[in-house]
Amino acid sequence: MSEPAYRNVSVDEDPACPSHDAGPRVSYQLHIDGGVREVAGAWFGESLLRVLRDHLGVLSVKDACEQGRCGSCSVLMDGRLVTSCTVLAADAADAQVTTVAGLGVGGPARAVQAAFLAHGAVQCGFCTPGFVVAVTDLLARRPDADEDEIRESLAGNICRCTGYGRIIAAIRSVQEARRRPGDTRWRPGTGQRPGTDQRQGTGR
Amino acid sequence: MITTADGTIGAQTARPADHPVLGAAGLASPASLYRPLTVADTVEILADGAADLLAGGTDLVPALRTGRRRPRRIIALRRVLELRTRGASADGLIIGAGVTYQDLAGWSLSPGLAATARVVGSPQIRNLGTVGGALGTADPRGDLLTFLSAADAEVVLRSVHGARTVTVPSYLAEGRDPTELITAVRLPRPCGPQAYLKVGARQAASAAVVSCALVVDRVRERVACAIGGVAGRPVRPVAAEDFVRAGVDWATGTAPPDVVAGFGELVTEAVRAVEDPLPDDPRASVAYRRHAAGVLAARAAGRCLSGPSPVRSAGGR
Ligand SMILES: Cc1cc2nc3c(=O)[nH]c(=O)nc-3n(C[C@H](O)[C@H](O)[C@H](O)COP(=O)(O)OP(=O)(O)OC[C@H]3O[C@@H](n4cnc5c(N)ncnc54)[C@H](O)[C@@H]3O)c2cc1C
Ligand code: FES
Ligand code: FES
């Protein structure tokens, strides 16, 4: 996937999408990761995912199913976790959109990213940005979620590589680090060495 | 600020004419996105019946992408705050069409609705998907539709000519006029235990293969049940409802195990008798769904009618 070509794809040149003749091209602004981005000439029915990737070159937001089923395109919209492929981009014009790059330093995001690396929760990496957004959202709301709640909360994010065990281990380590006496900051767990956790998920 | 190719069109004023915030002026049949702020403006834009409504987008946006839906005009409801309220009165509960599953999932006033909302999709889908969208799509496997059928809910629709209220079955039979907006659903206040049980392809984040909603009304001494995923719309097994109602000791709100088991069997019978069964599916045969409907119904009745807690909800497992 060559980046510049992909980034500049114009909707007119995408014959795979029959719906693109069904409405006008429109221009508007999106608020992404604290900045304002201009969208020029996008088809009015375009999803937020397509606009982020094809018009704005935000490639950390992954595209796998475009049906809301896999979670790889997860972002926060006004602080709520959503699949960007099921959001109409032009209707997000007054919302704050946060991708993995904009999760900030105040919450658990950095700790989550470090723990994913430390625990081998990143393999091909395709699902990772979506997982990091979803896990950060979960831990910010429910820092003490137990394993059942973690698994259920991540049911909308599919990973085809890790079997989920390492992802769960990474999240548990972030929770443990936070619980250590005297430490209320989010930081990654250090108790386990990379790749030593062999627990596998049930795949649900 | 949002602009079209030919200039800027504001979005904040009240007149519908000002709402086509995105659009190609000058076309014979202008295609546009409208983002109104009020119900009154929305129904005015809808008055010619030529626009599609967009709520959470979980059904509509993927359909736009694949070309299954090709509206020329879209009215986005996200900014219509009136639609996002919910409340309770002496008569019952009223839930705006823009209320999301996530809003319902924690709502203590309706444990059955909360249990239903919690087993819909994933957190991402629950944050977006709305009550109005569920009724707009009217998927026969839709969880909310099944629960609302058991709860004797009504759908409130509004057009420029005024509002009307219809029962869920007549809404499903007659549909919505393209000039009408669903503004809310109404349902009686819970007066007893409620359950919503669902079998899906996975334990979470998947549509129902079969589902069962059970609503016990200890004041009116009634049991209502709806089965989703077996027919073109949720099925009310009336004979089974009557049977269990007669078998409940209403002083305690409990039913003996043989009544609960008999209820399950009668539900399977009712599913066997439906006139418009959903066809066999490689992963869920008609026979399996019939059987599962009876199992879920008996399990739901077991949870709701084994006392002693006066109001109890059961989740989706
Ligand atoms: C991955 C995934 C998993 C899902 N899992 C489940 C599940 O487990 N259970 C389940 O029941 N559903 C599930 N769904 C379906 C979906 O989330 C629901 O049908 C949802 O309620 C639709 O609401 P929405 O606000 O997103 O609707 P939209 O997509 O915005 O609209 C849906 C339809 O309703 C119409 N509409 C919207 N609002 C109104 C209104 N106020 N008046 C009239 N018409 C209106 C629209 O025009 C459109 O036709 C799932 C969907 C996805 C993508
Ligand atoms: S690409 Fe959006 S959920 Fe799969
Ligand atoms: S790491 Fe490959 S899909 Fe998750």
UniProtKB/TrEMBL annotation, chain A:
Chain residue ranges for the region called Disordered: 175-204
Iron in keyword set: yes
Compositionally biased region (Polar residues): 193-204
Segments passing through the bilayer: none
Source organism superkingdom: Bacteria
Composition-biased stretches (Basic and acidic residues): 175-186
UniProt KW Cell inner membrane keyword: no
Keywords: 2Fe-2S, Iron, Iron-sulfur, Metal-binding, Oxidoreductase
Name of this chain's protein: (2Fe-2S)-binding protein
Organism: Protofrankia coriariae
